[in-house]
Amino acid sequence: MRWRVLGVLVSGLLVAAVGCQDDECSGPIAEILDADCNTDIGEPFVPETEGPMETMPPKALTKDAAPGWTSSRAMAVHGSELFVLDRTNAVLRVLNRADLSVVRQIELEARPYDLIVDAEGAALVTLRYGGKVVRIEPGQDKVSAEAAVGVGPTGLAMSPNGERLFVAVTEENAVVALDPVSLQSLGSISSPRPRAVVALGNMNVMLTTERAGVQYKMLRLDQRRGGLGVDLQTTFELRANGPMEEFMDFDIRASKANAPFAAVHHPEQNQVLVAHQMAFGGDEELVFNPPRDRDVQADTSYGGGGFGSFVPKKPVEPAVTPVPADGNDPAPFNPFDDSAPVMSGDPAECDSPSDINHHPEVTLALMTCAGSDTVMALNTRFRDPMVSPMGIIEVGQAPTAVVFSPDGKTAYVLDNHGFDVSTIDLNPILKHTSERGTTSMWQDSFKSKRLSKERTVKLGDDPMSEQAQLGRRIFTFNGFNGLSGDGDFACASCHPEGTEDGAVWFGAIGPRQTPALAGRLQGTAPFNWLGNEQTLSENFVRTVSRMGGNGLSDAELEALEVFVMDWLQPPPRRSHALELTDQEELGRQLFNDSVVGCANCHNGAELTNGKAYDVGTISDVEAVLAEEGLLEHDQPGIYDTPSLRDLYRTAPYLHDGSADTLMEVLDRTATTMGRTDHLTIAQKQALVAYLLTL
């Protein structure tokens, strides 16, 4: 522990970051310092400043950056051309980088998601709702080849030598390998809900997964079996705490990582940088011992401040997890190298990370922040680039992708909700770049920058009505104080892409798992886990109150409901055979059996009867809150019957997220939610198999 503290002391940060006082106090920080210190850590380790913070400049790369096709996003650069995907209008536009005029336009289908461009200028695009990968040859304005890969392809990447194409097929839990020219299948392997792909070699890939973290896979072509095999696999967890918490080697927050939608190779450190979120939902201990600087008069369970607000900092924050690109364990920490923390900026200025890309010439990465209309500049000369943000760049609405010009002097940002592209002059950062070989953190100096876009060119039209656009803005933008206290987070912070973050939030209502929204609301009233609000607008009002927001007007509530109900599109549903397997057919029969009783409550088109029941799943926290008269509502243990749609991708289960699997749900409710106590293991497995087809 001492050597970690020494690293902070040497960097001259400890007093500024922790804020020691003359008052007596106790706690983990005081133990580390062996000194009296104010341990009220509502805003831990963030130095207060009114001006730019001093940090280190980027330095020139000593290794060549990976080709742009080794990871994907909704934009790509090839020579004098800029490729831009319009996911909403299903169009690929190719622009002249000099004036951003449209050179050609390719109509696509079924909501394209990501693209890469190979060395010759051919574009490869995933069609998320079409289940395909398509190829457009250089200079052409139509698709030249396509391949069906399964439901929900998202990220893709081509090996550095251009010989292999890897596609993450999220809803099929698979990664498919293709020949990048003919798009002929080379085989597939299973992988839990893969999203971003980084190709590290001809047969080496890194995959982000929505629930399992990050997986490194060394693949092989199995000629005898005509498919892919795995020679080596390593799984890494995504970080769930900030760099200073990890540096000080203690955990002060219960947290969960989620939404790893982007990743890129870092050539200097031989890492893969994964952009994602961290959700801090509190825990049982903090339910009864909230931070003392909170107002205890109101319940704002999602972090807005008040009793039940058990998150000492923002409830959802951005993160970058550096993962070794060779699949080995991370290198040991060295407090005297470039990885020593020099906290220089507030990561809170980035919300809902949507893309990350590495500069071709210097140790600089840009991360788009869809929830804050910003791009964060990170210095990747640090082993952990989140310790020292170099600056914030203000762009348009919901930036979703960023790429660099070949010379690295300009960045292009796709503003997803503005249907435009912004250009950013990077010279204010690049002019401070250290020369090759300059590594001393004590000799370099750099003031963090706040930059603005240089120009913006509108490329397409928004198909939404003005009312729906307002609803989308409320759902997505974190700076909307009417929704959450201090604009801490937006609906999309916990419901990325309208799904769920997998987190559990603690408050005076008890622990609550985040439910999926997209495609699961129509016809499922009443709403929330208690089933005590008949309309979405009424439920929004209750939710906004817990989030500490100032409240939404009637027009804003109506706009939000229009967007959520009419425009929030769910992920494509996993394909299933027209006929059930024998096991699934047995499960269907059990589901409809009157004794087992599943269909008694989970019926109709949406698989719910809209009624609330006590099925014996009340948590210990809720029981204690109820006993002490602190529970917000007066029906402890009674919960709404949820829809069973898409159970294959909505784990964990139950109102408090306490069941990781459906088998666990059946075992815990064997005599209280229908009857399954008389079923054999094989019968319960059959029932679970059927449930996963719904």
Describe this structure in words.
This protein has 694 residues and is of the alpha+beta class. Among the domains are: 2-39, no CATH class; 68-280 and 315-458, YVTN repeat-like/Quinoprotein amine dehydrogenase (Methylamine Dehydrogenase, Chain H), CATH 2.130.10. The chain has 15 helices and 34 strands. A five-stranded mixed sheet has the order 21-22-23-24-29, with no helix packed on it. It has a four-stranded antiparallel sheet with strand order 2-3-4-5, with no helix packed on it. Strand 22 and strand 23 form a beta hairpin.
Topology:
Blueprint: H1 2-10, H2 14-18, H3 28-33, E1 54-55, E2 75-78, E3 81-86, E4 91-96, E5 101-107, E6 112-117, E7 123-127, E8 132-136, E9 145-148, E10 153-158, E11 165-169, E12 174-178, E13 185-190, E14 194-199, E15 204-209, E16 213-222, E17 227-236, H4 243-248, E18 256-266, E19 271-279, H5 284-288, E20 316-324, E21 353-358, E22 364-369, E23 374-379, E24 389-394, E25 399-404, E26 410-415, E27 420-425, H6 427-430, E28 446-447, E29 449-452, E30 455-458, H7 466-476, H8 491-494, E31 504-505, E32 512-513, H9 536-546, H10 554-567, H11 582-592, H12 598-601, E33 612-614, H13 620-627, E34 638-640, H14 662-668, H15 681-691
Parallel strand pairs: 24-29
Antiparallel strand pairs: 1-28, 2-3, 3-4, 4-5, 6-7, 7-8, 8-9, 10-11, 11-12, 12-13, 14-15, 15-16, 16-17, 18-19, 19-20, 21-22, 22-23, 23-24, 25-26, 26-27, 27-30, 31-32, 33-34
